Amino acid sequence: MPGNVIDVLVDSRKLHGRSVQDVANRVGTDARGVFLRALTRMGRDVPLSADTRIYVGDVMTLVGTSHNIERAAAQVGQILRSSDRTDISFLAAGIAVGLLAGLVSLKIGGIALTLGGGGGALVAGLVCGWLRSRRPTIGAMPPAAQQTLSDLGLGGFIAAIGLGNGHAAWLAIQTQGGLLVGMGFVVTLVPLMVATLFARHVLRMNPVVTCGALAGAMTVDAAVTGVCEVAESQTPVLGVAVPYAVGNVLLTVLGPIIVAATSAG
Known about the structure:
This protein has helices at residues 20-27, 66-76, 88-102, 116-134, 143-164, 166-176, 178-201, 207-217, 221-231, 241-264; strands at residues 4-10, 18-19, 35-41, 44-45, 53-54, 59-64, 77-79, 105-108, 111-114. A hairpin with a 2-residue loop joins strand 8 (105-108) and strand 9. The strands form three sheets. Strands 4-3-6-1-7 form a five-stranded antiparallel sheet, with helices on one face. It has three domains: 4-79, 2-Layer Sandwich (Alpha-Beta Plaits); 85-164, no CATH class; 166-265, no CATH class. The protein contains ten helices and nine strands. The termini are far apart. It is α+β, with helices and mostly antiparallel strands.
């Protein structure tokens, strides 16, 4: 009879930063009959090997009988019970906090800077997503509902930003013309080239992880998927999370400011 497949949240500080082999040795006989099928970190699959490091907040997908998995899980963390219900209270609180944060205005000179409703909601979404990745027991949402909101919400958000600044962008194109397009190429390509050289020669990062980080910094999900396909591995996603979050915030905050400044100039 095939074994059960159960997700277990790692919350034991004793296992933080230890390799898979070391964790298995520490769990000892309690791990008998249990097999590690997958490891997820912040919603992303982590390549598995005996030397793969385990950190608090990771989710281990274990295969075995319910009794064996429960015995092993007691040494690792807690079992995640699947749910087909959305955690409405967590979702509503995140949206409310984000909208309130968007109302905050900071004046620098004569210019008032504010995130706005969209920017505040985006920042709150990033924070809530980070909390969910670190503590998967909160903020539950069925995968189908999450995918629907992701597809429709992102498209609607981009459309709203474009419509809200469409007039200013059109004026900037009329006044600046080819210069605006040329500068667009420069500000897109130069940071990528500089970041690649810096990661390679200064940080000594793995090139595959660097590609994932650059794709995340550009906030292009298709690029992340393409990098993983070319690498034939999920390794690039290890570098995506932080650059993706920072890139989303900067895109939301600086985009309208740059368009307005260009049209004013």
